[in-house]
Amino acid sequence: MSQGFEEIISKVKSVGKKTVAVSVAQDEAVLEAVKAAQEKGIADAILVGDEAKIREIAGTIGMDLSGFEIIDEPDMIQASLKAVKLAHEGRADMYMKGIIDTKNFLKSVLDKEVGLRTGGVLSHVCVFDVPGIDRLLFLTDVAFMTYPTLEDKMHIIENTIPVCKACGVDMPKVAPLAAVEVENPKMEATVDAAELTRKYKAGEIKGCIVDGPLSLDLAIDPEAARHKAATDREIQGDADVLLFPDIHAGNLVYKAIVHMVPGVKNGCILTGTKVPVILTSRSDTFETKLHSIALAAVVAEEMKKQA
């Protein structure tokens, strides 16, 4: 059984506090999340950016900076390179976006000299704790890969498995989603989903269960699976991972949950990198940023075990 975010935070405390390098840290919401992460024993932080602005913002939110290392670098591009280098060299366990645009932040992640490339495909995972669902849901990819190919989808699954394991799911059930649950040559998403299932059954995809194509209701609602008599499926409303056919489907479902489901909690990271990368949006809440740090911390611990 997967854990909720409170259990994930407790797990971080049991394995020891991590360190996050923050790129261009002069951002109020990010500093609030970093402050809470330190207070909860999740992570210390190295703040890279305009020190004067960092101190000004810290003063307005009542943040004591005496326990934080600050690297003064007013230039945003240089700050991002200095911050990512900390993770590249092992001084930080994870890397977080501050008040820098996503394009330049990702350039630092992919920098050939000091970045976090592994030679593999990068993908984004969002973990949801949804009221009424008895497990975490792992949504991928909702923010990074636009139109993943069949091969890309295999890499996305591969990137997501360690995130699931870090959250207590040892054999995640992966549902490649489509509008229908049968293969249709005219619907590319169903063809890819069926092929992923065939590859899983042939032993080409390991460490998880893959069953697709599946409609969203069959993937997450056991009652819908019973009504549709899907008794021959390996997933019957109990999927852990929702694998989307493209960024439009993923992003729409992500935003629908965030903005329409009261009490939902979520955290997001970029995977396929040397360390977990916390790539949050300016519109994400303080709580989402804190949960993303906690998620990155348990994934960093899992990656350390697998190294």
Could you please describe the fold and organization of this structure?
This protein has 307 residues and is α/β, with parallel strands linked by helices. The chain folds into two domains: 5-118 and 273-306, Rossmann fold, CATH 3.40.50.10950; 123-260, 3-Layer(aba) Sandwich (Isopropylmalate Dehydrogenase), CATH 3.40.718. 43% of the residues lie in helices and 16% in strands. It contains eleven helices and eleven strands. The protein has helices at 5-15, 28-39, 51-61, 76-88, 102-109, 150-166, 188-201, 216-220, 222-227, 247-260, 286-306; strands spanning 18-23, 43-49, 69-72, 94-97, 123-129, 137-140, 173-176, 209-210, 241-243, 265-271, 277-278. The strands form two sheets. The protein has a six-stranded mixed β-sheet, with helices on both faces. A five-stranded parallel β-sheet has the order 3-2-1-4-11, sandwiched between helices. Helix 4 (76-88) runs parallel beside helix 5. The longest helix has 21 residues, at 286-306. It is elongated, with a radius of gyration of 19 Å. The model has no long low-confidence stretch (mean pLDDT 93).
Please specify the SSE layout and strand pairing.
Layout: H1 5-15, E1 18-23, H2 28-39, E2 43-49, H3 51-61, E3 69-72, H4 76-88, E4 94-97, H5 102-109, E5 123-129, E6 137-140, H6 150-166, E7 173-176, H7 188-201, E8 209-210, H8 216-220, H9 222-227, E9 241-243, H10 247-260, E10 265-271, E11 277-278, H11 286-306
Parallel strand pairs: 1-2, 1-4, 2-3, 4-11, 6-9, 7-8, 7-9
Antiparallel strand pairs: 5-6, 5-10
Helix pairs in contact: 1-11, 2-11, 4-5, 6-11
